[in-house]
Amino acid sequence: MPEKSLSAPRGTADLFPPESARWSELEARIHRLAARFGYGEIRTPMFESTDLFVRGVGELSDIVEKEMYTFDDRGGRSLTLRPEWTAPVVRAVLERGLLAQAPLRLYYIGPIFRYERPQKGRYRQSHQFGVECFGFPGPEADLEVISMAWELVADYRMTDAVLHVNSIGDSACRPMYRNALLAHFAPHLPSMSEDARRRVERNPLRLLDSKDPADLPYVESAPTFEEFLCAACREHFEALKSYLVLAGIPFVVNPRIVRGLDYYGRTVFEITSSALGAHSSVCGGGRYDDLVRSLGGTDIPAVGFALGLERFVMMLRAHEGGAEPPRSGVQAIALGAQARAVLVPVVAELRRKLDAPTYMDYQDRKLLAHLKIADRNRARYALIVGSEELTAGELVLRDLEKRSDRRLPLAAGGVLAELLVEATA
Ligand code: ATP
Ligand code: MG
């Protein structure tokens, strides 16, 4: 029987050059951004005890209801591949006792796993950059984390990104809003989605972010939280909005932003982009003052976000509109064995000294074939040595962007490398 050919699991992707370079560049920017805001990196295991997510994310969340990769290990423990980072981060800092000296500012970057129906911008393994800021109850910390997410978007000049903010109150005012929502949805439930009917009793707020067309008319006519916010929540939200204005961060107040995870309170926000299609966000976050306590810690307020890197890269691509990446580095081209023997040590030296790639192909080829390879590598310069150059004691340095040639003396390896570093600077 012929063997079935092997393929990557559904909803996962391999990453190759040059796309992988875009990812490294993005990750490098994220590390610099987090450092500028005074956040330190945390890395947690790729799997955790299943219980952590059931308690930390909430039984009624999409994640716990239907998206977790859960398995029993050989010791019979139920483990789950990390579907989100916040619960593991809280688990880790509690375990280490790091919140004893809160405030604490952490960021993470790495894979998450969710059993979803794969489609554009939705995968079974994807990657998130996110932050958690522990210890500040006030709106300044909300502004801080929102600024960080916005900064990344602004850094890439993504003008179609929109920041949506909302307040979903606290334990003082949410019950009133809950009741108002229950009363609003009750008569329509028979014609609403099954998810809506199942969730409405436990958490009617969840219905507000339903994407089911059956629910939309009733969601649109639902009362907003605005009129139910208690004085303290209203003050918090107003202060955040004025901070955002002062920081020059554009936003819209969107009463339908509620976030899918159960632990949020007061501030919630999302960043959307037209590049992602309707209702699709690249970043979601907010405040979760009760999470630390519910996972066994003391009362420590927290605010954070998670930003999807696959979706962010989709936005980047839409924004670039297929422009070619800039040329960089040198393609060393030897025509013939003798020239090759001269160039190999020069290439070794260039790779030590040049802060850009040096490429060399070791086959015997015509100049044209070598230049094609240089183009494929997006090299900025070609360094050409043939028999004519060997006799003259020279080489040709061709600027592949400006299409101009320079002749340089074919000095000994080290000296030549110095000359080239200078010429290509
Ligand atoms: P959605 O409503 O699109 O399912 P979500 O509310 O489940 O999003 P969060 O849990 O808030 O998403 O995760 C934050 C971000 O992580 C999202 O805005 C998105 O960019 C990214 N993300 C979440 N799930 C996936 C996935 N399956 N594939 C790719 N990116 C994802
Ligand atoms: Mg989801």
The number of E-state strands comes to 16
Give the C-alpha Rg: 28 Å
The small-molecule ligands in this entry are: adenosine-5'-triphosphate, magnesium ion
Helix-strand category: alpha+beta
How far apart are the first and last residues' alpha carbons, in Å? Answer: 59 Å
CATH topology of the largest domain: BirA Bifunctional Protein, domain 2
What's a quick, concise take on this entry?
With 425 residues, the protein is of the alpha+beta class.
Tell me about this structure.
This protein is an alpha+beta fold and 425 residues long. The protein has two domains: 19-173 and 229-320, BirA Bifunctional Protein, domain 2 (2-Layer Sandwich), CATH 3.30.930; 330-423, Anticodon-binding domain (Rossmann fold). 38% of the residues lie in helices and 21% in strands. It contains 15 helices and 16 strands. The protein has helices at residues 19-36, 50-57, 62-67, 86-96, 139-155, 174-185, 194-199, 216-220, 231-247, 291-294, 309-320, 337-353, 367-376, 387-392, 413-423, and strands spanning 40-41, 47-49, 70-72, 78-81, 104-113, 125-134, 161-167, 252-253, 265-273, 281-287, 302-308, 330-334, 358-360, 381-385, 394-399, 404-409. The strands form three sheets. An eight-stranded mixed sheet has the order 1-5-6-11-10-9-7-8. Strands 13-12-14-15-16 form a five-stranded mixed sheet, with helices on both faces. Strands 2-4-3 form a three-stranded antiparallel sheet. A hairpin with a 5-residue loop joins strand 3 (70-72) and strand 4. Helix 2 (50-57) crosses helix 4, helix 5 runs parallel beside helix 9 and helix 12 packs across helix 15. The mean pLDDT is 93. Magnesium ion is lined by residues 62, 260.
